[in-house]
Amino acid sequence: MLFHIIIFAFCIFTTIPFILTIIVSVTNENSIVKHGYRFFPEAFSLDAYRLIFSSSEIYNAYTISIVVTVLGTALSLLITALLAYAIAVQKVKYRNAIALLVFIPMIFNAGLVPWYIFITKYLHLKDSILALILPMLVSPFNVFLVRNYFKSLPPALIESAEMEGASPPYIFAKIILPLSAPITATIALFYALAYWNDWNLALWLIDSRELYPLQFMLFKIQSMINYMSSGGNFGVGSSTMPSDSAQMAMVLVTIGPIVLVYPFVQKYFIKGIMIGAVKG
Questions:
Q1: CB within 8 Å of 56: residues ≥ 6 apart
Q2: Are 136 and 115 contacting, i.e. CB atoms less than 8 angstroms apart?
Q3: DSSP state letters, 87-119
Q4: 3-state SS class at 122
């Protein structure tokens, strides 16, 4: 009984910052300036949300982020799983050399300038939606995480399938992947979070406003708010630019899709990360 009370109290405690974020996002900016963050504000206001959604560009940015996250996660999962399976199977020739090539970028990199030149001058990805997907397509850490999980599967499954005449693609698609739901869900969450939260690629590679993802669009809005807040009032009368409330509103705008996705992969997450991390 005591254990359940402690767990319940801990859950309430961890929920408090999220509740405060919601309340502050709908608090009048003058009230925040005067009284700070409060659970029971003096006045409520939706100015922060009106400002964020005042332009149709935010809806386009939402669409771009969703497309990039869905396509990027799907492609990253496919390539990561195939690469991990190749270096996990003992019969694959030069698998250790391939694993070494995958491991090297975890330790060394060429630097930002050579990377930028390669992306723009050789791959010609400047100002393209592919510029938001391809540079993050494969994570070496995720590859080794999946490889370790594949190596934990019973080899007898593969051997029996080979004796029945199953081809490697059939074994991978019909046997390995169905047994790898925990690690697949875990890696999908990692990739989805990386694509959804990224704004650096847009900063470096995207010039067209039609291709701005949500995070970068919100970064632009926040920069505009900071600039205008330093220059005077917002709207009519004494209403000030919603700076702090806008920051909290942006948090809620960005985490919405992830909050909806996470419950579906939660039951696989712990199992996938633990097995993938300790098996070798």
A1: none
A2: no
A3: HH-TTSTTHHHHHHHHHHHHH----HHHHHHII
A4: helix
Amino acid, res. 150: F
Is the CA virtual torsion 240, 243, 248, 254 positive or negative? positive
Q: Which two tokens stand for residue 146?
A: 């999946």
133: enclosing H helix or E strand: none
- DSSP for 229-263 reads HTT---SSTTPPP--HHHHHHHHHHHHHHHHHHHH
Length of the chain: 280
Euclidean distance between CA atoms 24 and 38, whole angstroms: 7
CATH architecture observed for domain 57-278: Orthogonal Bundle (1.10)
Token pair recorded at residue 138: 């494969």
Owner of token pair 């697949």: 184
Q: What is the mean pLDDT of residues 212-238?
A: 73
Q: Give the integer Cα–Cα distance in Å for 102 and 147.
A: 12
Higher-confidence position of 111 and 232: 111
pTM assigned to the model: 0.84
3-class secondary structure, 13: helix
Task: Label residue 238 by pLDDT band (50, 70, 90).
Answer: very low
Residue 82 neighbours by CB under 8 Å, 6+ apart: 172
> How buried is residue 20: exposed, middle or buried, by Cβ count under 10 Å (0-12/13-18/19+)?
middle
What's the DSSP call for residue 39?
Answer: S
Contacts of 34 (CB under 8 A, 6+ apart): 42
Q: Which residues pair with 44 in a beta bridge?
A: 27
Per-position DSSP letters for 165-224, written without gaps between them? T--HHHHIIIIIHHHTHHHHHHHHHHHHHHHHH--HHHHHH---GGG--HHHHHHHHHHH
Is the per-residue pLDDT at 214 higher than 60?
A: yes
